[in-house]
Amino acid sequence: MKQKPTLPRGTRDYTPAMMLRRNYIISHIKEVFEKFGFLPLETPAMENLSVLMGKYGEEGDQLLYKILNQGDFLKNVQPEDLKKGSKLFALQIAEKGLRYDLTVPFARFVVMNQHDLAFPFKRYQIQPVWRGDAPQKGRYREFYQCDADVVGTNSLICEAEIILMMNEVLGKRLGIQGFEIKINHRKILAGIAEKIGAEGKENELCVAIDKLDKIGKEKVEQELLQRGFSENNIQALQPIFDVPANNEAKIQFLEDFLQNSAVGSEGIADLKQIFEYLQLFDSQTSFPVVVDITLARGLSYYTGAIFEVKVKNSAVGSISGGGRYDNLTGTFGLQGMAGVGFSFGLDRIYDVLEEQNLFPAQTQSTTQMLFTNFDKESEKFVLPLLKKLRDAGYKAEIYPQSTKLDKQFKYADKKQIPFVLVAGSEEMKNNEISVKNMQTGEQKRIKIENLQTFFQEQL
């Protein structure tokens, strides 16, 4: 019995039509990254687990895909090793894992190549990552990230430019409606932990608060109790769940709430400086930036400003996020290397563009024109024309064998090719070609010498 082919859960095939749409998104992202001075980089799909483990917090480590050692991976395993528990046993039979994000491999790259790089070093990277999450709408186990990071500077101009890039790609170029760029600061969260009497427990606070949108306030409070926070801590946290609506009022609230916290005050000062830089860049634009005091972003390596982009009234989750990680390279032995970066979630942006019907019609096909194929005589006539149009920069093809014209037109229609060119005996005799506009149905004969001029006007 033949086995029915299946895909692993949380993955999907990308059809040609989907790839053209994805390339449409990627081309805009690349153009903006390069416009802001970022250079392209690629790193391997797999990394040593020693590089990956401990960089994403407790939950991130559990979601890492581990790769079994090559050959007989049980060769050196003893029966008593099984009693160590699944976590330690997994590390004994797997030395490598699939990358969880692009930022940690980037930090590893910077440390290994530090003497060859010009700092500040700005790179962008568009590659797939893998996470053992439960698959759901907008969440996949294999998905692409589009990262931009800069290391080697403390300047908050970088944070302001991240907001500019997010706004340009999502709003100006892709036309997404109703997105918000949420911003907070890990030092503000550290100040809140200090204020509620739980100093030093900001990581535990962040892991719980980061789930507020998903599980709600009550369950966040339950999780905080499970993580060792007292009833008094949680009571002192209550003002955070009910803050003013606009950014100025939120910052004023924070200044009052954290007035005795040095670390919290540093975070507030950073936010104010980022908003000041945005004004200097473009005082005429009202950026869709919202200070969100409960935004935590669970990754444990963030130390400064943190970002997240969500679309209102959409089932898709966060479509972009990032933050500052002042000592990420320190885990690999390179101290004092400040960095900040963010990532676009390509697959989620794709889903949002589908939801909002924002893909241009012409992302369905690369081919701009199809030459039909009558017989050997027509092939001799059109093949030189096909080469000429391709040399002029047009995307053109010929139906590869002579067959019924109806079948060739159906092919063009299915591929959404906008123009079909027909060279029958009459056309060839008059040194002309018939061009049919597949959208309007209009058909006209064009002199061969006027063909390029015609398409310059049409395309």
Structure in words:
By secondary structure, this protein is of the alpha+beta class. The chain folds into 2 domains: 16-64 and 100-355, 2-Layer Sandwich (BirA Bifunctional Protein, domain 2), CATH 3.30.930; 365-458, Rossmann fold, CATH 3.40.50. The chain contains 17 helices and 16 strands. The strands form 3 sheets. The protein has an 8-stranded mixed β-sheet with strand order 1-5-6-11-10-9-7-8. The chain has a 5-stranded mixed β-sheet with strand order 13-12-14-15-16. It has a 3-stranded antiparallel β-sheet with strand order 2-4-3. A hairpin with a 5-residue loop joins β15 and β16. The radius of gyration is 28 Å and the shape is globular.
